[in-house]
Task: structure prediction
Amino acid sequence: MASEIQLVQGDTKPDLLATLKDSVSGDPIDLSDVDSVRFQMREASDRRYTVNANADIPDAPNGKVSYSWAADDLSRPGTYQVQWELHYSDTTIQTTDPPCTLIVRRQ
Result:
């Protein structure tokens, strides 16, 4: 995923697409053993998530994930941190690192 993404307040398209990569090797993370992925977004100055929702896995072997914006996800302009939380079938959890910056500009 790019280190900074810019979107417009109130938009619901395009979907957010990302290839999740291992922070050490840089290789795509094989998501074949992942039961679910959560897309998490919070304001940079806050610890509470404004979005913590299920994401899709369109291409598990190549680490590809996507998130479709809900109507109010981008309702407030500002700078946000986003990350993906992977829930594996063996009940372990992995959170992507480093988080990405998302900027929502005024309409």
Notes: The longest strand covers residues 49-59.
